[in-house]
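Suppose a colleague, Dr. K., hands you the sequence of a protein chain of 87 amino acids and asks what its three-dimensional shape might be. Before reaching for any lab equipment, you can write down a predicted structure in token form. Begin with the sequence itself:
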Amino acid sequence: MTTVGVAELKSKLSEYLGRARRGHAITVLDRQTPIARIVPYEPGTPTLSIRRPPPGTPRLGRVALPPPLEVRVDVLTLLQEERQGKR
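The predicted structure, expressed as tokens, is then:
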């Protein structure tokens, strides 16, 4: 299976789509983490369908949110560390 980083995929998209057309699957990496797969199209594959919620389902704005988590660390600091590659 072929793997490709986001930057290379952007610069050579046509090449990788050609590989998919020829039957190859491509795994897309963001900072060495797999985030997506490009796979060949197969006719007859079920398509995504959107359906309405069943009657009686509460509207999205009326769904109760869970209580906040009691976190003892600064999540913004963790996010910054992750983005800077320290974790």
